[in-house]
């Protein structure tokens, strides 16, 4: 890596231009001859550009040879291409035409080269400066919630996960997030950190989103799509920009809200001479997080009799039969969703024996008293996020530009995996070196992070147990409890006498001991008790290159590229186990791709653009594989029809590959032979919980159960194939239509499922409940299908008003198969073939983790120019109810449908180069959660003032 950076630096210092420089000058106005300031001007096919001054004038130095073309773009106006020749390059006079519907966007994510978004071969969405300014969302990243088919799962005010096309996850490792071409994911934990360590808001030029399989050009893990966030080039966007935003959230929270927050950002970019430019960015957000305060009794299949069943049909599930009792005074098993230490399946419950002295408790389960999330963390919900970057850019010969960049992210956050986990002080650095020309790219970057967190639920259990053991607590509870006479609440009160209270000195001392002691070490003063802290200080080293043989042999465009990647894990055994020799694991990957495109002009109005791409990738722990893609676009006039077949795959994350549960605390098990062997499962097999249930009920034989034992030798990559058709058109310059339909088929789908292991090694002992439960990552033998589609419409109403909306749906179905490929039957004896995963007859046989709403839509009415200075937008969002299957302690539940009304009003002050914006999301303050156990999201209201490109 060091040699690569030296090579880049040498290129910066040693390559010079031999071309003569010219200066293109001109003046830009609107249709009323009023000067336009801030118009972006780029030399077509290059990154060379500038922005107009307050009087509409611009100067653009370049070494490009005449004639050439320039492209002008400005919010609210139609993009215009202008030819520059020897006779006009010093005195261009250009008028821009106002446009309410933006359709002529240029994208790069779909094919890795610039192209018209309407003629892209796959579904792609783009958000630019105009969309960011018009959106009521508080940040560019949050504006994604208005893109059709995008599901944002909000875990924290600063941490949101992007999900598309089913299998929603709080930590989506099937969706690739790239910031200026760099992978946003945590190297060890394996999921994207979104805005926690993203590009500062003022420096974001655009966000492009491609839903669906994208491995053909982007390699592993772009299984459900990718998001490319691009920052502003300092040659094009010069000057000083600043933003001050203040707001309030947690409104209407009794005894807690409202709470204020602030978001301050500054950006400075300057071109020094003709070749060198620099930019600096810093952003800081501080406030109070949205609070996870769902205290309803948990809905989870760990409950006895969770599914309602039809006994006449072999106990086939008909729905959820467990009736939650939200009153801990009357519910022996009360387990609040966001209370911790009372979890029925994670160390917070006591099972009384069938011969217990107190007959009213025989065979029953009782939960301890839990602590709230705010009580355990003890920071009153305070959240902070810092982001920064510094970049140096240097123009080499022709259109070649070299750059060096540093990107930094820091803050605290809560994420949800199997448990809620708190990261009090996350740090990440990314360093990038890049040389880019019109037809080639060389890039190298590294990710270095320090991520230490602790498990909130396990810490609450530890606090309870450090005060009083579970056995002692249960004894005191049992001595008091008398059914129908002394309630569970009174018995708990008696058993809880002297309990450590949140905020007290002893509570904080015990919490800090367990939270600050790694889970590999013994907590001081607590013999045998391990801590709850884990770390991921892993790093990633990535190298890639690409060359575009544009017009190869005057026949076709050919792109070739490749990449090498190395993960160096550093968790000290706290998140991922060490190797047998005590060293950390490393993971090496490499890949190469080829894409061929031909643009065929059939006549003056009809063209055909076929594209074929293929990529080969190899991970050191798995066999290599190819991921091809074929697509075609038929354009006739303003109508563009597309069709594609795509494939993709995903390597298991390091945790899914290697992890083992912490002794005495449970957790997930990696699917590899290394993980399985390290905890003795090779000698004592494990079986899926649904198979064991069927065996106990007599629906399968012992021989059938034995044949379904987990086999780690079969653990492999996850794969998908997708067929898709789409249509884009601008009709009569008033109606923009964008529609698509897709069908996806997953193979070797990876998910953590509950497996049972007999304590004696005999499967006959499952009937006596002598077994332990493990969550093991494995490849499902099921056939998984997702069908979906969507449509977006935007209509120009006249006088600057636009009415837009989008609708998207996705339906997940599954054919369940056992380890031998035989179709599994439901309890009524019917084959489970292509049934919805939310069907209780299917869910009864095990979790499938589709976790996505079937339908959602957005409707927006906006006018960027109500007057010369005033603009406004109002958006209504609706998301369907969702069947959730989540984690060790989360549960199984129908998450209710939710709605949000968002609005903003903006006022431009051209003389100050500033915009004042007043806005809010969920302005009606109807609290909802986007996942089970996640934060409850209420209204977020803000006022911001943005000063843009001062001192140019």
TrEMBL record:
- The name under which this protein is listed is TonB-dependent receptor
Instruction: Show where the TonB-dependent receptor-like beta-barrel domain sits.
Output: 431-922
Q: Where does the UniProt annotation locate this protein?
A: Cell outer membrane
Superkingdom field: Bacteria
An example of a GO molecular function for this protein is: siderophore uptake transmembrane transporter activity
Q: Per the UniProt entry, what species is this protein from, by scientific name?
A: Spirosoma agri
Tell me the protein family, please: Belongs to the TonB-dependent receptor family.
Give the GO terms filed under biological process for this record: siderophore transmembrane transport
Keywords recorded for this protein, A-Z = Cell outer membrane, Membrane, Receptor, Signal, TonB box, Transmembrane, Transmembrane beta strand, Transport
The GO cellular component terms are: cell outer membrane
Can you tell me which residues the record assigns to a coiled coil?
none
Mind giving the lineage of the organism this protein is from?
Bacteria, Pseudomonadati, Bacteroidota, Cytophagia, Cytophagales
**Bilayer topology term:** Multi-pass membrane protein
* SUPFAM superfamilies named among the record's database cross-references: Carboxypeptidase regulatory domain-like, Porins
Q: Does the keyword Transport apply?
A: yes
Q: Which residues form the TonB-dependent receptor plug domain?
A: 118-225
One Pfam family cited in the UniProt record for this chain: Plug
InterPro entries documented for this protein: Beta-barrel_TonB, Beta-barrel_TonB_sf, CarboxyPept-like_regulatory, Plug_dom, Plug_dom_sf, TonB-dep_rcpt-like
